[in-house]
Amino acid sequence: MRPDVAVVGAGPIGLAIAWRCAARGMSVVVHDPAPGSGASDVAAGMLAPVAEAYFGEEELTSLLVASAARWPGFADELSRAAGAEVGYRTDGTLVVALTSDDVAEAERLWTYQRGLGLPISVLRPADLRAREPGLSPRVRGGGYAPDDHQVDPRRLVVALRVAAARAGVRVEPTAVTDLSTVDAGVVVVAAGLGAAALTGLPVRPVKGQVLRLRAPDGAPPGFRHVIRGYADQRHVYLVPRTDGEVVVGATVEERLDDTVTAGAVLDLLRAATDLLPEIAEYQLTETRVGWRPGTPDNAPIIGALPGRPGVVVATGHYRHGIVLTPLTADLVADLVSTGVPDPALDPFGPARFTTDPN
Ligand code: GLY
């Protein structure tokens, strides 16, 4: 039977849209030959509306803040619907800087962030080490972003698949290469990078190399905050999971190749161990490459596709796919069910990249 909604792409965004549409009473099919195998399988899962608020991206930052605010309720509802935890943790994020040059660089950004009214407080080295005793004594300064949390994207996908299935969503292992072959009331393109070929929208791959480590003897990592570090001009983040895993990332490269390079691993591990020396004793369990779906203005593309009746897109989430999952899903489900876009979507519509004025 022809479904009300077909979603192309079973990453967190596509699955969450499907789940939310099903909750509104729509029949939903999701198409993906390999659910959860895209950027989310590599992503660290930082929910960072503050630490990833960058110069000149105020509208995007507002969207990140609004979506982050939905995370507590979303994680709770999803965990109950799926009967599975998603690794949502609220210990907050420490921004740490190794040298005085690193402090100066970090300070420029957190001064801007504080100017936007975002919660980030400056901490002295002694205060940083009181929060994380494992930090190197060489760390010169830092800040604390209490509202920047984390979730485990791999658990998130598992939970979304279960919750969506329980809500009646069907997942078809089919690869969609032409939207005209999909028969549904509305087609939602949530295919990350794949949206470029399907829609012609300017979504490009931004390569990220990411490592996974594991604390010795099955113990949890010796730190509990997400650490975002500046270490001798190198940028790094470390995300501790309660099961002992630590995600270390990430490069940001305008490339499509899938090579894990010695230089990137060296840079990430040098920065990580400079900030948290105990990491050197951890097991290196995984080296991976993922591709963020980037757009020309770094902001996602969400809305009805001009000139293509019945096609809605939700792609281009770049570095923010996990934090933007709850809000994107709600806004797209509302759009699909009412046909009316929420004004919050005005800056993010596909029309900013198409020539069709409609
Ligand atoms: N948001 C983290 C990253 O893009 O690496």
Fold and architecture overview:
The protein is α/β, with parallel strands linked by helices and 358 residues long. The protein has 2 domains: 5-85 and 151-203 and 296-353, FAD/NAD(P)-binding domain (3-Layer(bba) Sandwich); 93-146 and 205-292, D-Amino Acid Oxidase, Chain A, domain 2 (2-Layer Sandwich). The protein contains 8 helices and 16 strands. The chain has helices spanning 12-23, 58-82, 100-115, 125-131, 153-166, 195-199, 262-275, 325-338, and strands at residues 5-8, 28-31, 46-47, 93-97, 121-123, 141-145, 149-150, 170-172, 186-189, 204-214, 226-231, 234-240, 245-249, 283-294, 301-304, 311-315. The strands form 3 sheets. Strands 5-6-4-11-12-13-10-14 form an 8-stranded mixed beta sheet, with helices on both faces. It has a 6-stranded mixed beta sheet with strand order 8-2-1-9-16-15. Strands 3-7 form a two-stranded antiparallel sheet. The longest helix has 25 residues, at 58-82. It is globular. The mean pLDDT is 97. Glycine binds at residues 46, 52, 208, 249-250, 292, 319.
What does the secondary structure layout of this molecule look like, with pairings?
Blueprint: E1 5-8, H1 12-23, E2 28-31, E3 46-47, H2 58-82, E4 93-97, H3 100-115, E5 121-123, H4 125-131, E6 141-145, E7 149-150, H5 153-166, E8 170-172, E9 186-189, H6 195-199, E10 204-214, E11 226-231, E12 234-240, E13 245-249, H7 262-275, E14 283-294, E15 301-304, E16 311-315, H8 325-338
Parallel strand pairs: 1-2, 1-9, 2-8, 4-11, 9-16
Antiparallel strand pairs: 3-7, 4-6, 5-6, 10-13, 10-14, 11-12, 12-13, 15-16
The structure holds glycine.
Catalytic activity: glycine + O2 + H2O = glyoxylate + H2O2 + NH4(+)
GO biological process, one term: thiamine biosynthetic process
EC number: 1.4.3.19
